[in-house]
Amino acid sequence: MPKVESHLVGQVFPAAEPGEDPVLYGSVDISPKGAFEARSLQTFTVTYTVGRFGLDDTGAIKLAFRHSNDWGMLQFTDPAAVNYVTATASNGTPLSLSYTSLDQRPWYRSITVLVTGGCLSEGDTITITLGDRSGGSPGVKVQTFCESGLEFKLLADVCATGQFIPIPDSPSIEVVPGPVARWKAILPTLRRPGEAFRLGIKAEDLWGNPTDQAEGMLTLTANMNVTGLPETVHLSKGSRAVVLEGLSVAEEGTLRITVADESGTRIAETPPLIVRDCPRGGYWADMHGQSGETVGINTAREYFSFARDLAFLDATGHQANDFQINNAFWQLINDLAAEYNEDHRFVTFPGYEWSGNTAVGGDRNVYFRNEGRQIRRSSHALLPDRSDLDTDANTAARLFEDLQDEDCVIYAHVGGRYADIAMAHDPRLETAMEIHSAWGTFEWLLTDGFPLGHRAGVVCNSDGHKGRPGASYPGAATYGAYGGLTCFLAEELTRDGLFECLRRRHHYGTTGNRLHLDVQASFSGGAQLYERDPRYFDVAAKPVDQVMMGDIASTGDEAVELSIECVSATPIERIDILNGSDVIDTLYGYAPEDLGNRVRVVWQGAEYRGRGRQTLWKGHATFSGNRILRMEKVNAWNHERPVEQASDHQVTWDTLTTGNFGGFDAWLEGSLTGTLDIETGHVCGQVEVPALGMEDVVFNAGGLERAIRVFRLPETNTCRDFKCSVKISLKPRGDNPIWVRVTTEDGFNAWSSPIFLYREE
């Protein structure tokens, strides 16, 4: 049961302590110990034994939990309700309890037990009962995600000075996965004939944790001949995944593999693998997340192992908040990146998140090609060691200046802080904009740069804090989105190959699904292709007739032929073509006559760009003059926030969005009749059901791209393979950033990096 080592955690506690001997402050223990299922109901007693100093009147102890904790709101008032907490002193001294939702990073939440009207002596105890069942409470809800060493951090203000000293040897428990809720089978999405690849198979519990409770003989069926693929594979109980290495396909085609259980029931299907004789493969990565040494959970070693062995990624990076990375942890990040990096199998980069406030430029992600480079922090906010304070870069502009001679790339990022790309941007280093993560969806981070002349690619990552890079479910806390992924279209799976891919923006991002996406522009009169931005690099132009996503080219053509290929595991709802911020066309894999009695209602958007961007959507949709036969949720990641069919005529919901979207499909009875009335706290509206078609009916709700959309879909959409060519007119002046946004029916998005075309005078 590994626990994060405290000397690797950037954390600041009071410098003044009344004594050095740990016995002065007391000790702490927990009961029961052991392993407990994620989101199960439990009861824990945490016992603090007072030390030699005693615990004075108006002194207090705090039981603290990490930032990522999603136990739910602990409460002290309703003995019959969930998450009821009590505290008692062995000598009968009165105690007062409170729950603080924001405390000292990385310990963001804490129960404070205040001594009132008395004091405690050495050997006295305070017992905190989490999930006290004595009054009928069912217990306390354990967090939704697995953790090998969930620490119960106790701090004591023994002298009633307001200074809380951490008690050493904090106890911990293990949080383990629950029973099987779904199966996943993962393939890459683009390989060359004969090129080796792997197939990963796992089962997940309800909250997305790979579970060790699955077992049995699985049957694998492929639609193409796969060298090295067995007919069956056995998953043993206790293992969380099975990985088949060294597979290959000799012929071109689209490979799909299905997985069936011992009863013959199909339990999973892989994303499509396009096998094609082409110069590049498609390599999936989640380059941004944190572990327990900062504000995540589990150890950094477990982070890298999960990405490779349980998310089946091709590449990853660790991105801790810089002001919390002490020098020992920076060395560990470098050591682990070197250890896990393996050419042509799994590529890792040493790096960090430059976490300056938005007022000085906002978050940036820094990736070095090689280990051993100097970290340039935004500050030493949580680092007592100030010996290298002179290495800090306190603004994003200074960061770019200090990294000019480094072999690195930088992403702009939106998290707690958002990147201000108008204040600071260096196209020689900052190659991409992260437009989706667990924090939400942020297309505006890319589109804000178009009027400024920025030429950046699209990446998506998880920014996960729950120990699941590459498969980052949001759990039951404030994160409202599933974490994103980036597909690198690179010549080889090496650090050199991925760096070249990034510097040419040959990649696309998704909100977490793995689909194949190819976008190219063809020229009747030819074009001049630049491998680097000619405004900032001395590069020669290369004459071409065709370019791909991310390329920069000039042309005399007034229009180009845009070719789009999208192959998905799930049906494709639509593909939007954009020139800059403007949607210039929307493509569907079905026609108006294919629409059925399925109505989709979607809510989306955010409050504003900053940290408190979550929008709470509480409302209902009522179908009058018709009846709902069945309903299915879309993007309802938090199983404790309901989207429910309340009656034959009404659907109710209580969810949140953070720039992304959620919603539901309702299949209606008989002919399309009646009206749909929508009521929420942000917007209300009515639409005649017979008037609904493929195009959205939009009810704007203010905020940041906040709205409700209503439209119809086919009863069953079979479009999973979309290929077309469209003629696109170009604006006569400035850049034409041509890119596409894919929406799949199961609630995911994918975005290509723009092709930057400018007209020759």
Unreliably modeled segments: none
Strand content: 35-45%
- What is the CATH homologous superfamily assignment of the largest domain? Metal-dependent hydrolases
Quantity of strands, as a count: 55
CATH-defined fold name of the largest domain: TIM Barrel
Query: What is the makeup of the main sheet?
Result: 15 strands, mixed
- CATH class group of the largest domain: Alpha Beta
What's the end-to-end separation, in Å? Answer: 66 Å
Helix content: under 10%
**Cα shape:** globular
Residue-averaged pLDDT: 96
Counted by DSSP, the helix tally is 5
Radius of gyration: 27 Å
SS-based class: mainly beta
Tally of discrete structural domains? 5
The CATH architecture of the largest domain: Alpha-Beta Barrel
Your description of this structure?
The chain is globular. The longest helix is centred in the middle third of the chain and has 14 residues. The termini are far apart. Helix 1 packs parallel to helix 2. It is mainly beta. The protein folds into five domains: 171 residues, ntegrin, alpha v. Chain A, domain 3 (Immunoglobulin-like); 96 residues, Sandwich (Immunoglobulin-like), CATH 2.60.40.1930; 231 residues, Metal-dependent hydrolases (TIM Barrel, Alpha-Beta Barrel), CATH 3.20.20.140; 101 residues, Immunoglobulin-like; 125 residues, Immunoglobulin-like (Sandwich), CATH 2.60.40. The chain has a 15-stranded mixed sheet that branches. Helices cover 6% and strands 41% of the residues. The protein is built from five helices and 55 strands.
Keywords, separated by commas or semicolons:
761 residues; mainly beta; Immunoglobulin-like; TIM Barrel; 15-stranded mixed beta sheet; 6-stranded mixed beta sheet; 5 helices; 6% helix; globular
